[in-house]
Amino acid sequence: MGPSEGPHDHRGHELIDLDGKVAVVTGAASGIGRAITRGFVAAGAKVLAADIDEAGVWRTAELCDDPTAVEPLRADVSDPDDVAAAVETAERTWGRVTTMVNNAAVSIPGNVLETSVEDFDRMLAVNLRGVFLGCKYAVPALLRAGGGSIINMGSVNSLVAEPVLAGYTASKGGVLMLTKAVARDFATSGVRCNCICPGWVDTPINLAHAERMGGIESVRDALPSWQPIGREGRPDEIAAVALFLASDLSSFMTGSAVVADGGMTAI
Q1: Can you give the CATH number for the domain in which 151 is found?
Q2: Which Pfam families match (predicted)?
């Protein structure tokens, strides 16, 4: 049983009611995106689960309490047509969209000398352009629904840099500033936009970086020295933050960087 399929995946669903919410979740085939999809469904939402990994999003649907509450869709978030189609499909299927979770990302480790132009462009295309497109096509749907919540997945690297992550850090810094811009532009229209900033979480996206740091076991051994909670985060712990931001409990929050990093940025 992998970390994204464990018994804690529904953390928060018993406390937060998302009945009537309709969400689009990108990067839903694994890790945090899968945990968010499962948590949203457990809390009563309908979810359009999008990912370039089509088999992965179908597996995510199967893992949900109610697979019929999930519409899996293959989508490349760097493609405007795919992102527009995801929002349109959710709205057509369930009548409205209330929540957009821009979670899809790629991480290709390297400093500026090691990172190719192609890899840098790819990270910006998925991590930043993908969030821009998600906001661009979700906002009109949220306005038609009478308002809603955009949740962008940033990182501690939206706030601080780490070694050999130049492109990823640049893209995630952009995600936070884009979040603030969208929040300012639509604050009086009922559309909220917030950014979750996770620390080191046990997800597949971190494996390549872990190899650069000596392997995943070396990372886990060293974690207490730079993530004070002393362990990796779990996808369901980040999903719990997304549940809160998707709910009406966070109605006064917009433009926020919500840090869930086990104390990493407290050092």
Answers
A1: 3.40.50.720
A2: adh_short_C2
